[in-house]
Write a structure and sequence with these properties.
Blueprint: H1 2-19, H2 31-57, H3 64-95, H4 99-110, H5 112-136, H6 141-169
Helix pairs in contact: 1-2, 2-3, 2-6, 3-5, 4-5, 5-6
Length: 171
């Protein structure tokens, strides 16, 4: 019940935002899909975070094979989410309507820190880079746990920044 409900909620909210032609920040045909994958990334990251907090709190040991598998799902979901957001950006540039001037001014002035620094660099690129390093090199369990923990915290920060950008960009 939870997963279909989440798909319906995020898809519908994305559809509503994408349908608002008066607001160039929200007006995109990819908005429902971007919302869905953003929710998937956020959900997987939150599950990993809760797993890493609750299991040791209960006095149990973290199962590294489980953590590695969840992190792999997160890694691929982040790649898809980043690709969709990049595609949305390229599509907006391709259309080059008059709204592109409004959006570029928003990004350069009002949203630079929250969008470029927090969402893209800290919330997407840095965690993606960390997960690539984990996949390339055989780090010990403790270092992998720390890197996973840092990655999911940064991803949650980026997702919350995304939501903040929707609110700020919509004003």
């Amino acid at each position: 019940i939870g997963i279909p409900s989440a798909f319906l909620l995020h898809g519908y909210v994305g559809f509503i935002f994408g349908s608002v032609k008066a607001n160039p920040w929200w007006s995109s045909v990819l908005m429902p899909i971007v919302f869905l994958f953003s929710a998937i990334v956020s959900g997987i990251a939150l599950v990993i975070l809760l797993y890493m907090i609750i299991i040791p709190f209960r006095g149990e040991k973290i199962d590294m094979s489980c953590l590695d598998k969840m992190a792999s799902f997160l890694f691929y979901a982040v790649i898809v989410d980043f690709s969709l957001e990049l595609l949305d950006f390229i599509h907006r540039l391709y259309e080059s309507e008059e709204s592109i001037k409004i959006l570029s001014e928003l990004v350069i002035n009002k949203l630079f820190v929250s969008l470029i620094i927090i969402q893209v660099l800290l919330g997407m690129m840095l965690p993606l880079g960390i997960m690539v390093l984990i996949k390339l090199f055989k780090f010990d369990q403790e270092l992998r746990k720390l890197l996973y923990f840092v990655s999911v915290i940064l991803i949650q920060l980026g997702i919350f920044s995304t939501r903040w950008n929707v609110v700020i960009g919509g004003q």
